[in-house]
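Intended use. Records like the one below are meant for learning the mapping from a protein sequence to its folded structure. Do not use them to infer anything beyond what is encoded.
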Amino acid sequence: MIFSMNVYIRKNTSYYHPIIYVLKIIEKNRNVIFNIKNSSAEAEIIWDHKNIKSEVLAYDFFDSIKNGSASLKHSEVFLTSPNVTDKNENVDKIASIFYMINSLQEFNVEKKDLDDLGRFKYSSSYQYRFNNINENLVETLINNFCDEHSINGNKNDSVFFISHDIDRLYGSFFEDGFWALKKMKIGTMLNIILAEISKDYHWKNIDKIVKINDMYDIKSTFFWIVNKGKSKSGIENADYNISDVKDEIKLVDESSNVNGLHKSSFDMSIDEELKKGKFENKYNRYHYLKFLPHKHYKEISNSSLNFDSSLGFAEECGFRNSYGKSFQPFDIKNGKPYDFIETPLQLMDRTFHKYMDVEVDGIGDRIINMYEQNPKNCDISLLWHNNYFTDYKYGSFIKEYKKVVEFIYESKIGCVTPDVLVKNNYLSW
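Structure written out for the chain above:
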């Protein structure tokens, strides 16, 4: 029997739809039902700023959301802790959840908060300010809310979402070659040169990735760039033509893995790129994680996409929106969720390697530890690029990937593709 509870929310208020949205998130999170009643007399939980029995209600905060106020900056909202509070400094758990899930700290982002690629910097975030990037704060708030109201429900087992961004296929000659030259590995240099001459490109290794995934019964998603070369802004996109990798895309399609779009920085719409790549699946991740939620959510909603996985910090692993689950972002202007699922990206090989300077032989354990810290209600999203499945410069990384997928296999943890995440996290509205 599914647990249910009656609730009342005053209509025609700035908080009505946001609270319903959060309650639907909790329904998914706990497998419970909230019955929206027309009268507070029928309800066990009340949100009504005119009712003394109301839950804590950060009324001014919800008005700020509706009006698009500049005061939504986290430095203005989270004064002493990562919580939204009312005038009396009482924590409004529902408001806090809404703020975090929907990345409202980035709602009025300023130029100083962005890096050279126009990405929201980790150092500009409240996660950096409060040192809580690895904390699933939304899950904690949901737990506290449910405990306070004796809401019983079943938590869902966490799953892995594994993906591979295919940025470059022909980089081995220069990157591996320079590495071999620097290390004075003459034999390796010769192998790299011979591979280049014979067009046996070391990074063109989709078959190798598929084989490893099959070995451990892993399903993953391959994101492809359809535009080659530099965009007008000078950003490098693919080093391959999408028409030249038909066999690789077909190989993925014929396996248990799936393909999706890796949106380029070219002035081409999402749907134009989907058409160019002939992708049937409407899945996407923005190249370089060049992604600002409140700009690109609108772009996604105007396309045929039903799934995106771009919400992550390039320079730090963890929870960019303090939530471990896939979700439908909320369209503030229209007062309802957008019609697609966002799966945040928490873990990336390049982040560990380039930005965090983590020892390679500790990466696998860090990823496993994230799962062990979040065994329930978390979609653990891991990105592992194709060049990190290779020998030479990145040769030590493949062992760490195998350590993770072996752990998933032996622990019988679910490993899902976007279609499952869409199905499991879509809200009835």
